[in-house]
């Protein structure tokens, strides 16, 4: 390794040099303000000037290399007879024995927390006082202990000493490695005491619990909306900025979050890695699978506060709510007709363009939507999967069942604004309105007589053919 000095640990020159500069008692802890030596040592640590010729690990001083190579040169020759645990250094054995025999005898007078070693107590007390005596000379950030500073320095040097033995991925912090390993093991040790959902990291559990409590502490300064965690807020802000930093490499489509790109890419690959154990159907994401499962267990989480009706999907509740509010935010630019849902507008536009992309394989008839094709197909099969739970009558489509149920309840939700007459369905109201307007849209091609509905026209045609 070029530019790295590899030391012969049989020589004690380095150790003696350090002794002359730093007192033995203070060698492990070097507060900021010790001046030139501390800053020089920190800077050299970033460069990694001194290296171990066994494992190629780099250090900021000769003394650190000297102490490090004891790990390679010595066996774990110090052991405790009670637990048979072995140590390289006698000091580590002494510390371990103290924990086992005397317990945690150093107590914090402020919070009562106990420690097995006085040095750990000293560092802990700084969490109360706010003291941070160890300074990074690169970014000027301060830390409570020298070990925290040493770990922080790896961010500047790019040094990742902690490696996953399963996949080889390396990490700067031990906490990140621990969290990562749980991906391989599937371990989720942190459980919510409200819904029993488990998480691989405590921070994820803390954020999750806010969903139960409704604690939304992160506010958007643009629209005032609140969010459970900062990540949700950052994603939300992209709605205002229009930023879509994540793009699909295949089609170039852009997204506001990385997870959306991953799910989208599966539409190209056809990958659906999340199967339903009930029906075997597979889905591109776990969230879509979770929503799908509600079909099997009958779970309807989203309830209308006006009428009490419940829905499996939140989007269905939003659309349903517009029935009560009268809101129809989607309008046709050609005829001005409005709709409660964007998909209905999309299908409606085909009535202007004449586009009918869905074909019946039996009679070759074409339809503007897939749902219309499915309902039509039941005419050929005779299938009527929907039945009235009052009288048992069966229907081929849900809208016909809904209208039929009103014959039992007496409900007539569609009112004529001119004469106040009520109707069970919107098509009947539309037909009725033509009596007031005099509009006759349906013409007989034989005698040119006009009618307000197709049913009246059909009846009239029978007078021509004698039926």
UniProtKB/TrEMBL annotation:
Domain of life according to the entry: Eukaryota
Recorded GO molecular functions are: DNA-binding transcription factor activity, RNA polymerase II-specific; RNA polymerase II transcription regulatory region sequence-specific DNA binding; zinc ion binding
Q: Which UniProt keywords apply?
A: DNA-binding, Isopeptide bond, Metal-binding, Nucleus, Repeat, Ubl conjugation, Zinc, Zinc-finger
Query: What is the name listed in the Swiss-Prot or TrEMBL entry for this protein?
Result: C2H2-type domain-containing protein
**Which GO CC annotations does the UniProt entry carry?**
nucleus
Q: Where is the signal peptide?
A: none
One matching Pfam family, short form? Answer: zf-C2H2
Q: Where is the C2H2-type domain?
A: 50-77, 106-133, 134-161, 162-189, 190-217, 218-245, 246-273, 274-301, 302-329, 330-357, 358-385, 386-413, 414-441, 442-467
Q: Where in the cell is it found?
A: Nucleus
* Family statement: Belongs to the krueppel C2H2-type zinc-finger protein family.
Against PANTHER family, the record matches this protein to: CHROMATIN-LINKED ADAPTOR FOR MSL PROTEINS, ISOFORM B, ZINC FINGER PROTEIN
């Amino acid at each position: 390794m070029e530019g790295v000095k590899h030391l012969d640990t049989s020589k004690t020159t380095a150790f003696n040099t350090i002794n002359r500069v730093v007192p033995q008692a203070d060698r492990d802890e070097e507060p900021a303000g010790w001046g030139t030596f501390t800053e020089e040592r920190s800077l050299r640590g970033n460069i990694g000037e001194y290296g171990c010729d066994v494992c190629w690990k780099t250090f900021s001083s000769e003394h650190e290399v000297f102490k490090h190579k004891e790990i390679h040169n010595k066996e774990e020759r110090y052991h405790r007879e009670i637990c048979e645990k072995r140590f390289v250094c006698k000091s580590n054995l002494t510390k371990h024995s103290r924990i086992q025999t005397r317990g945690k005898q150093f107590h914090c007078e402020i919070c009562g927390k106990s420690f097995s070693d006085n040095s750990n107590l000293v560092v802990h007390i700084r969490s109360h006082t706010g003291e941070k005596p160890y300074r990074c000379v690169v970014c000027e950030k301060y830390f409570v202990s020298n070990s925290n500073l040493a770990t922080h320095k790896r961010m500047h040097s790019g040094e990742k000493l902690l490696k996953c033995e399963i996949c080889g991925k390396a990490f700067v912090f031990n906490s990140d490695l621990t969290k990562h390993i749980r991906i391989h093991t599937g371990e989720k040790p942190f459980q919510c005491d409200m819904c029993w959902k488990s998480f691989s990291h405590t921070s994820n559990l803390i954020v999750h619990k806010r969903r139960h409590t409704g604690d939304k502490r992160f506010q958007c300064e643009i629209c005032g909306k609140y969010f459970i965690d900062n990540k949700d807020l950052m994603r939300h802000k992209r709605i205002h900025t229009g930023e879509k930093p994540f793009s699909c490499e295949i089609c170039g489509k852009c997204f506001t979050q990385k997870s959306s790109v991953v799910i989208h890419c599966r539409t190209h690959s056809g990958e659906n890695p999340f199967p339903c154990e009930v029906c075997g159907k597979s889905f591109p994401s776990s969230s879509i699978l979770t929503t799908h499962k509600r079909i099997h267990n009958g779970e309807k989480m989203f309830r209308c506060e006006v009428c009490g009706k419940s829905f499996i999907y939140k989007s269905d509740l939003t659309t349903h709510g517009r029935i009560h509010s009268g809101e129809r935010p989607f309008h046709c630019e050609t005829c001005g007709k409005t709709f409660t849902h964007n998909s209905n507008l999309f299908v409606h536009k085909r009535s202007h363009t004449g586009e009918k992309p869905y074909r019946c394989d039996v009679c070759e008839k074409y339809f503007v939507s897939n749902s219309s094709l499915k309902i039509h197909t039941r005419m050929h099969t005779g299938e009527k999967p929907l039945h009235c739970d009052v009288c048992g009558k069966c229907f081929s489509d849900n809208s016909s069942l809904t209208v039929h149920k009103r014959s039992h309840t007496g409900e007539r939700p569609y009112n004529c604004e001119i004469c106040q007459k009520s109707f069970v369905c919107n098509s009947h109201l539309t037909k009725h309105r033509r009596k007031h307007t005099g509009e006759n849209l349906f013409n007989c091609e034989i005698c040119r007589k006009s009618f307000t509905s197709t049913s009246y026209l059909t009846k009239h045609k029978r007078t021509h053919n004698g039926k």
